[in-house]
Every structure is written in C-alpha cells, then in structure tokens.
Amino acid sequence: MCLAVPGKVVEITGDGELRMGRVDFSGVTRQACLAYVPEVRIGDYVLVHVGFALSRIDEQAAMETLRTLAEIGALDPASEGEP
Amino acid sequence: MRHVDEYRDAHSVAAVVRRIRESARRRWALMEVCGGQTHSILKFGMDELLPETVELIHGPGCPVCVTPLEMIDRAIAIASRPDVTFCSFGDMLRVPGSDDDLLKVKARGGDVRIVYSPLDALRIARQQPERKVVFFAVGFETTAPANAMAVHRAKAEGLSNFSVLVAHVLVPPALEALLGCEDARIDGLLAPGHVCTVTGYRDYEALAARHRIPIVVTGFEPLDLLNGILAAVTQLERGEARVENEYARAVTRDGNPGARAMVEDVFVVSDRTWRGLGPIPSSGYALAPRYAGFDAEQVFDVGAIAVREPEECRAGLVLQGRLRPTDCPAFGTRCTPEHPLGATMVSTEGACAAYFHYRRAARAVAS
Amino acid sequence: MSRTLESMLVCPAPRSRGDVIELAHGGGGKKTSQLVETLFAPAFRNPQLEPLGDGAIVEVGRERLAFTTDSFVVKPVFFPGGDIGSLAVHGTVNDLAMCGAEPLFLSAGYLLEEGFPMRDLERVVASMAEACSRAGVLLVTGDTKVVDRGKGDGIYVNTSGIGRVRDGVSVGPGRAAPGDVVIVSGPIGDHGIAVMAAREGIDFETALVSDSAPVIAPVRALLDAVPATHVLRDPTRGGLATALCEIALASKVGIRLDETEVPVREEVRGACELLGFDPLYVACEGRFLAIVPGPSAEAALAAIRSQPGGEGARSVGTVASEDPGRVVLRTQIGSHRLLERLSGEQLPRIC
Asked: Which residue from B286, B207, B219 is spatially nearest to B248, judged by alpha carbons?
C-alpha cells in the first residue's frame, strides 16, 4: 500500500496527461507525473507514489495537526521526552 | 525532512502516548489496514510504547501478499517466454509461486526487470518495439491511477507491444469480508491513508455505519499513527462509530477526482481471489473492455494454471489478523526472508517480514 | 559493491538449501557470513584466519604485518566521486588501516572482458595511480586476464595489500569491551546512494558524490592519540548496522546505538525515504567506525576531527555487557528495537 513520500515541486513541464514535475526530496530530485494534481504550483509539496503525485500537501491542515500536537505536548506533565 | 521529521518528534510521541494511556479505560483491538502502517509501527517500535489496553491487529493491506497464487504463477509463465520483457515492482520478484518465483525466472535468463513506476515499463515498450513488454499491475487503489495512466497512454500512442497483467485489489470489500466474520474482534479501524488520497473516505462511511465501528483515516509517520489511534480510542470510549480524518494534510473526503476518473475509464470492478482470504466479490479491478488489447491475460495464452500452496504457511491467518506472525510455528525457523513459505514473509510490507526485521529489544532479551 | 540494480535483491533460498550460489552470498550480510563460516573458514582453518577481520595479522620474524584482499565489481564503473580503480585502492588501503597498520604495498589483478574500451581501462589505471600516490602506497605487482566477450562484466579488479601493524596497537572485531564508546568518522550512506543514483533504472538526481577516500590520516591521528583503540571497522557492504552486529557477536557484548546521534546527510535521508532504504544499512566508503575505551572518547573524537575526512566524526553509541551479541537501537522517537545483520541486500521498496 504504499510508500508515498512528500517532496517539493521545483520544476514543471508539459500539461494535461503529460504534465511532469521535478520533485525535490531533501536535495535528491526525481521526475514525477503531475497529471493528477493540476492545481499544484512550483513550491508546493506533493505526495509521490510510484512516480505519480497523488495529492498536494495541504499546508494549512499540516499546521493544524502540528498545532494540536504542540498543545498536547505543552499540556503533557513530563517535560523531557522519555516515554 | 519537511513533512516527515515533524511527525517523528520524540517529545510529542511521548505526550500522545500518555494521552492514549489515559483515554483507554477498556481493552480495544484496532486494525491498521495497510502493510506500510504495520511496518512503520514495528520499525519505530511503537507497539512497545502503547499501553496493553490497546492491541494492534495487522490487516491485509499488503498488495504483494494478497496477490492470488494463480496470478503469480501466471506471471511466471508469461515472464518465462523468450519474447517477453516482464516488468514489475521489486517486491513481487521474491514472492513464492507454486514452484517458482520471478527472481528465479530471471536467474535462468528470463528478461525480468524491476521498475519504479509503470511509466518506466511504458518507456521500455517505446524503446523496444520488437519486445512484448508486460507490466505486472499489482496494488491497491493507491497504485491504480498510475497503472491506469500507463494503459491509457499506451492506447493513445498505439503501443501494441505493451500489456498489463492486472491484479489490483480494493480495500473496502476486504474489510467488509473481515468485519462480517462471526468471530471478528476488531473494535476499530485505522484506514489506509494513501489509498484514501485517491478514493477519499466516503466508502468507509457505509462500513462504519453498518458495523458500528469507528474508522479513522490515518497516515504513516509515528505521530500520524498515534493520532489515529488516539482518535479511535476516544471514539470507542465515547461509544461513537464514525469516520474521522486524521490525515487531513493529504486526504479529503472526495479524494482525487482526476485520478478516480482515469481509473474508472481504464478499469472495471471485478471479483478477485485474495491469497490468504479467498474469493471476495467485487474486490478487484480488471481492464475495461475497450482496453482488452492491453490485457496480458488475453494476449498470452499460458494454459491452465494449477496452484499449490505450501501447507505449513499460515499467511492467510496473518492477513486476516487472526494470527500474530510470532505465534506461527514456522516463524523464524522454517520460514524466514531467506526461505519464505509465504508472501507475508517476503514482501517489504508483509507483517511477518516486519516482525522478523524489526524485532523488539524486549522480546529478544526475554527469548 | 553490488553490480546492477536487479542484482540487489534478496534471493529466497532454493527449497533445497545451498545447491547454487546466489547474489545474496555476495551481499555482505548473513548469507555471506554463513558462506565464510561454513565453507571457507573450516577449509583453511588457522589462527590468523580465525578472527575473520577486514584483514589478517600475521607475524613474520619480529614484524606484525597486516594482509588483506578485496575484489571490486561495482557497476557502473565510473560514478560521481570515483571509479572502480580508486574504490579498489582506497578500499584495500582502508582495510589495512582497519587492522591498525600503515599501508605499504598493493597488488592489482585485472579481470577484463574482451571488448572493454581501452580508454576506460586507461582512466581506471590513471585513477588507481593517483589514489596510490595520495595514500602513500606503492603498487608493486599485478596480473591481467582477459575473458571472452559475454563472460565478464567489463572489468573486475582485485587488490591485495600489505601493511605494518603499529607497535602497541591491537585492534580486532573481538576486542570491544563494556564501557567503550562507538564513534563514526563522518556521515553514513553517501557512497551507496551516490552509486545507486548513477545506475540505470533508479533515475534520481543528486549532487551527492561517493565518499570513497583513504582514511589513513584520521586513523593515524586516532591511534596516535588513543593507541588502546579496541576496534576499527569500515562499514562497507551491509552498512553501519551490519558492522556493529558482527562486532557485537565477535566481542560478545551488547552495543547500544542512538539513531539521533548517527550523522546522515539530508540528501541521503531523502534518497533513503524515496527508495525505502534504511541509512544504517547503506554502504559507506571513506568512513570508519572506532570503538575506544570510554575515558578516551573525547581524545579520539578530537583526533579524528583534526584530519580531512574526519570533520564529521560523532560518538553514536556505547558498549555494555547486557544483551551480549545484540545491537539495540534507540529510535528517534525514543523507543527501542534490535538491529539485525542485513539479510541478502536491501531491496528498494516500491509499493
């Protein structure tokens, strides 16, 4: 199921079914098909699976999640990270 | 790494684990559906961190593991033909068929190639018009859009030497089958996050209502999994049974409409036999009739396939969540990644392989 | 040092065990160990072979010499940061350094396939000459064989080397002791990922280059500062994890590794996420791990860091008497799990 990895779109070529992008994964780049994410622009993050971007990462939603996690962390009685 | 490391923060992990511990007053059994989630749980030692009140049952979400034996044998037969260049994702090469596997076909001189994307297989077909290029289209709904695009492009470009051997499987029907068992003891589900980026989660709403269990769309990083578990436990403690999305940065209720449209164009829903689970109606994809020319099952007549599953292998029980890999008598002895009896030990997402590779320190010290 | 992308697979053993050699036997993991322990070691049994270290320490008269051999089958032949030739020289020189020896002399055997371009051979040889000069060793003997077209793979190189073991130094895989500290000389995984990026079929771009280089200078500085160093090892095939597993077994100690302390470049992490690899199992070249007595750890780190190639040295773990033979990883989320030796070779995860 599936290894899908988040990366940043740094280049876009073509359009429609042939829309391709160069996606950056921490300094390593790879081509991915962007046909399924027509709304994606350079600088956006996408989830890539078997050479296809399946989803644009929603930065707002990500911030929400991290904010909630930060709140849980702040309310947590232990201040050090030992489980 | 952006959108990765933030979800591996040790302090947050400890805090969420504590919340789970506080929330779970009763014992709950949650099934994480996807093999990738199972691997993440074991790789990060998360099962060791969770309280005993929360039990994780590993689900059948490993497409390599559930590809029917007959299909593996068929793939081997096709790959053995001298005029065929057989392309596949790497995992499939080691899966044992009745007598053989794709890797051995390759060792004997078969033209078997690992590809990372179905587009790679397409490229090979373009570059080598004299070869019959076959792509082994395995996977859940996550991989279907990619495979659909490859077939669609092949038709658009008239690549008559390209065909696909389709063995796609669908998650909701399998879950229905598992939850419908009389002795099902699954209290809640962690739905597969990446499948849902494509399909959305509407289909899970009917499932949740019918079986009255919470279903939480969950990602793969430690904090995503823990958030999913916390949400499921919270619902269970409150007696709720709804679908919740804890992977909102990647998943929406409707999924990816463009991807789904392509899948609906290229594939039709079909009955499918799952290795280890048996036949499940309407649980797979086959090529739509207008793409029949690209269907490897029709292009190649490999005769009747007689399957033979090693008797000792209990992968089926593992896939159904009824047997923990470490409780299988063959685990680690007669069945290891080097000598696998079944697919769950070979596939990188198989539960047995995960237990084998990521053995917990506590278990090892005790043994 | 595997050959093609496809050859990097884990092969399940045939149902009747052991009737043919499999690619996994060359992977540097469990199957390789099994082959060595069950076939080679018993056949040649002798005390110098026994430790099964990177090289053998032999006594000739009053001298302690280190003697090592290695064969190189890397594909592609030329990759970012090196080629089969420089890899061979650095690899052998480093194996001698791992024995606590000053490398002195090398031999080179070339196994060439008919049709291999002369220009490529010239490049490889020039690269080896330069590498020898950099490392301060002399290549004093060699051999050349050519096999029919189709019976080889372009070029294979074997290098053997002799060095003089430093006085007062006694390192070996069985010498780790409770209380010791585990140090790595720099970020792991560069070589494996750089080579993979250069292979066909994987298709990703990176500025990463192989870290293949001689480690003589940092090792020399280390042994000057801490002659009581217990273990030196270069984590090549099988990576850091496999090397530590072997040491834990040989020394009958438990090793604790802290994932957050292990240096890994961002690009290597990115490539590993993409391919589904674990950096702890990716081959390194130009890196070594050192296991030193606890009180000497600071001095050891300072010594290694003072040399080019050692700037990124970090202490990554400790040795204990509990859990002998095991390596326990403390993960970045604070949990623990066992590290095993690599079984076969890492297969890039796809699905």
From this structure: B219
